[in-house]
UniProtKB/TrEMBL annotation:
This is Unnamed protein product. Pfam families: MOSC. Keywords: Signal. Residues 1-18 form the signal peptide. GO terms for molecular function: catalytic activity; molybdenum ion binding; pyridoxal phosphate binding. PROSITE patterns: MOSC. The keyword Signal applies. InterPro entries: MoCF_Sase_C (IPR005302). The keyword Chaperone does not apply. Residues 208-383 form the MOSC domain. It comes from Ambrosiozyma monospora (Yeast).
């Protein structure tokens, strides 16, 4: 007579094979904006099956048949490039083939932010390019390791004008440009409240005029950022981010961008990868938007100075619901009054019933390791997949 454990194994294996065979059908059902009382249960079953597959695959590669490339799970592409935006919601970023990770995300990412004071809420509130589209045309002229130099065309002189911002907190710089000295003030960004230093004497009238900013716009820098806990692994307690919307990184793939760029046609040809504000850009993923299913992955590379390899851990938190910024032409800073990119994406990128009216592009990501360097060509090792769902209680942008 068949033992209980043998029967259980056969049942689990049968269910696993059936779900694997119907995987595409499950995805098509789950990745839609339509709500259903059955979806949470089906998503749980589907994700359980994905985790079961991951355990089998990593166990096989770890103990039975190691892969020559050292991957434990599923090949998920490789690092194409990284992008840092020293000022939140300004410039097209600083593109690199390798960069260091800190506890806040990519080093020097979004360490400054433009803001205005809210009398109603009694705090400084950040704003993005949806309110000041021309900020995308601010150029990063250079980076010397300690300062970023920015450039724009002055209205006063008609010629290029530059300014520098230090990469690290500089209290002499703060004292020079803040009427509050080294006293920090309350700041709000989405649902996060924290403290920062107000550089209210830094921005010139010419700068505000060029970028069509409110007269009371100030530049803000934060010493220690804001808490980042929703959707973050419990073992990473105490994580913080600077002026990123919330999470340290936004991960996208070249394949996803290519699909959108092709779909928007000549009308939306202005859109660029930087329009979506990613930090970690992958390439050679299995299909467009596949990265949005990565739940846990490692970035694996080989040391050049000595033999051996490195493996760094990452988790994803939630899919990124897109704002209107991709409709801005990065060269001119002029919004597309037809909202071509948003309208095209709305036809097929509404894939989360937790945010049914938003188009999805990219996935928010948390780095587990700090003081590490990510390089172009590093491989992505998918350790576990999941179909994600945005729940109101887990939404830091509410």
């Amino acid at each position: 007579m068949m033992g209980f454990s043998t029967a259980l194994i056969l049942v689990v294996a049968t269910v696993n094979l059936a779900i694997n065979k119907l995987s595409n059908n499950f995805e098509k059902y789950l990745e839609t904006p339509k709500k259903s009382k059955y979806k949470p249960y089906i998503r749980s079953i589907y994700n359980w099956n994905l985790q079961f597959n991951a355990i089998l695959l990593t166990t096989y590669h770890r103990f039975i048949n190691p892969r020559p490339d050292g991957l434990l799970g599923e090949y998920g592409g490789e690092v194409d490039h990284l992008i840092v935006y020293p000022i939140k919601s300004a410039t097209t970023g600083f593109k690199m083939t390798q960069w260091e990770m800190t506890q806040y995300g990519l080093k020097y990412d979004r360490i400054y932010m433009f803001a205005v004071y809210s009398e109603k809420n009694q705090r400084y509130e950040g704003f993005n390019m949806s309110k000041a589209a021309k900020l995308i045309t601010l150029k990063i002229k250079s980076f010397n390791g300690t300062h970023f130099e920015f450039e724009y065309i002055s209205k006063e002189t008609g010629s290029a004008k530059t300014f520098q911002l230090p990469c690290e907190i500089d209290f002499d710089f703060i004292a020079k440009h803040s009427s509050f000295g080294s006293v920090s003030k309350p700041i709000n960004l989405w649902s996060s409240n924290f403290e920062g230093y107000i550089l209210d004497n830094f921005l010139s009238d010419d700068f505000k005029s060029v970028f069509e900013l409110p007269e009371d716009t100030v530049l803000i820098v934060s010493a220690d950022g804001k808490p980042c806990s929703l959707g973050v692994p419990k073992k990473l307690t105490g994580r913080r981010t600077m002026f990123q919307d919330y999470y340290p990184l936004l991960t996208v793939s070249q394949e996803s961008y290519n699909a959108v760029h092709k779909d928007v046609g000549t009308e939306g040809n202005y859109v660029r990868m930087e329009s979506f504000r990613p930090n970690l850009v992958l390439k050679n993923v299995a299909r467009p938007f596949d990265e949005e299913f990565y739940l846990k992955f490692d970035i694996v590379g080989t040391n050049t100075k000595k033999t051996g390899s490195y493996r760094y851990h990452f988790s994803t938190s939630m899919k990124c619901a897109r704002c209107t910024i991709p409709n801005i032409n990065p060269k001119t800073g002029v919004p597309d009054d037809k909202s071509t990119v948003s309208k095209k994406m709305a036809k097929y990128r509404r894939t989360d019933d937790g945010s049914p009216y938003s188009s999805i592009f990219g996935v928010y990501t948390v780095n587990h390791d700090v003081g590490i360097t990510i390089k172009q060509g590093d491989k992505v090792d998918i350790l576990c997949r999941a179909s994600k769902h945005l729940l109101p209680k887990d939404n830091p942008f509410r």
